[in-house]
UniProtKB/TrEMBL annotation:
Descriptive protein name: Uncharacterized protein
Keywords, sorted A to Z: ANK repeat, Signal
Placement of ANK repeats on the sequence: 55-76, 122-154, 154-186, 219-251
Organism: Salvia splendens
One Pfam family in the UniProt entry: Ank_2
InterPro entries in the record: Ankyrin_rpt (IPR002110), Cul2-RING_E3_ligase_SR (IPR051616)
Residues making up the signal peptide according to the UniProt record: 1-16
UniProt-listed PROSITE patterns: ANK_REP_REGION, ANK_REPEAT
Length: 443
């Protein structure tokens, strides 16, 4: 037994040296270690199975990340390592090469059967990463190699990512390869709203030319409502010309003309006034009358009540869907509610619980991160006003999280982590009002 343990220790040491050689770009050291190991199959096993403790990255990950073509070639041609290993965040070597914008290595890895459809824990594929880098050569390469053009990530589809960054060249590439301008992942605004928010008139024009529907959106601001808040009226004019309806009322609190008035965008109000049906609660239906009334106490009180009624209706539907175990519909309702009022953490946590039920683990975890980002002091229970078991739940959550990070492939640890995550979210979801949250935070 001591001899077996000694051999295992030697293999771990060899693995660490191999990873260090790959990370530092030393091909000579890598070849020297291979000679010392002698058995080629054992060397292959070490390269494939040994990974960096903190990240799970293999030697191929490191070589691809630093852009060392010769090491990549040596590992794949001579050692014949597995080309699609994943680290703890499910990042592959080809994804690392894309992040580093190493086009030659990306081409080489794809030629040797690297899978470009694998997404990391955030849903980001190599195509998403190429767009985030703004590298047109990589974008074209991946599209030619049939990358999944509608892949959904926490940042949206590749088209949503490109438009959100105002990258017109990437938008052209995606649309020319068949990206659907009317398909969008609901965690992010629709492409036309993304174009307005990124202030890219060129992206908007490209989308409209590709027959993007100017009246298609999920919740919150419609494309026209978003454009109404912009000082540059070209967005409004383009959308109206394309058939945007200024009188739509689904999942909105304010009509586009009201949005313009609320930000003192007189030019926007003037453009929208002739095409907007009279809104009955405005006592003076003129450009000046609309702008003045939009800033009155009466208007504010009325719309606060409208918002509350709409949110109550959405929350009722979401609760019913959850009770019926229709978690997909419940997630959609909580998402709509959060877009209208993002500071109710109860909706964020309940949505995460539903996503966990659906097996969408990464989205559930990132929902937790959003909670902590919005109110970073919230998770720490204090005083007797918080449920008695909350402190224990939080400690269990931290302990399970640390255990999981230490050994992410341990099934028992994974189960404990999931259970504690569920307890933690269940506790947070009991907090229903912003006042309660703030009172907890301020203790």
């Amino acid at each position: 037994m001591p001899w077996i343990l000694f051999l295992k220790l030697l293999l771990k040491v060899a693995g660490a040296l191999i990873i260090e050689a790959g990370a530092s770009g030393s091909l000579n050291r890598l070849k020297a270690i291979r000679k010392k190991v002698k058995d080629e199959r054992e060397f292959l096993k070490i390269c494939d199975e040994c990974s960096e403790f903190s990240t799970g990255r293999t030697v191929l990950h490191h070589a691809a990340a630093i852009g060392h073509y010769e090491i990549c070639k040596f590992l794949i041609h001579n050692v014949k390592v597995y080309i699609n290993p994943m680290d703890y965040k499910m990042t592959t070597p080809v994804a690392e090469a894309v992040k580093g914008e190493h086009v030659k290595i990306v081409e080489f890895l794809i030629k040797h059967d690297a899978v470009i459809a694998i997404a990391d824990v955030e849903g980001l594929t190599p195509l998403h990463l190429a767009i985030l880098k703004g590298n047109r050569e990589l974008i074209e390469l991946l599209l030619v190699k049939h990358a999944h053009i509608e892949a959904e990530s926490l940042d949206g589809t590749p088209l949503q990512v490109a438009v959100s960054r105002g990258n017109a060249e990437a938008v052209k590439c995606l649309l020319s390869h068949g990206a659907n301008p009317n398909h969008f992942y609901e965690v992010v605004d629709c492409p036309l709203v993304c174009a307005v928010k990124s202030r890219s008139l060129e992206c908007m024009d490209l989308l409209l030319e590709a027959k993007a529907d100017p009246n298609l959106y999920l919740s919150g601001l419609s494309p026209l409502g978003c454009a109404a808040k912009e000082g540059d009226t070209k967005f409004l004019e383009s959308l109206l010309k394309a058939g945007a309806d200024p009188n739509l009322a689904d999942n909105v609190i304010y009509k586009p003309i009201e949005e313009a008035a609320l930000v003192h965008n007189r030019a926007g109000v003037e453009i929208l006034f002739p095409v907007t049906k009279r809104i009955t609660h405005f006592p003076n239906w003129t450009v000046d009358g609309i702008t003045e009334y939009a800033h009155s106490e009466e208007f504010t009180a009325m719309n606060t009540a409208r918002l509350q009624r709409k949110l109550n209706a959405i929350n009722f539907r979401a609760t019913k869907y959850t009770g019926d175990k229709n978690y997909g519909h419940a997630v959609l309702q909580y998402r709509i509610a959060s877009s209208l009022y993002q500071y109710n953490l109860s909706w964020v946590t309940k949505r995460s619980l539903c996503q966990a039920r659906l097996g969408i683990r990464s989205h559930a975890l990132f929902g937790a991160r959003k909670c902590m980002k919005l109110l970073p002091n919230l998770p720490v229970p204090r005083h007797g006003e918080i449920p008695a078991g909350a402190n224990m739940i939080f400690k269990k959550f931290l302990k399970a999280g640390l255990t999981f990070m230490m050994d992410p492939y341990n099934e028992v640890a994974c189960r404990a982590f999931r259970v504690c995550m569920y307890d933690y979210f269940a506790w947070l979801s009991q907090i229903n009002t912003l006042e309660e949250i703030l009172s907890f935070r301020d203790h």
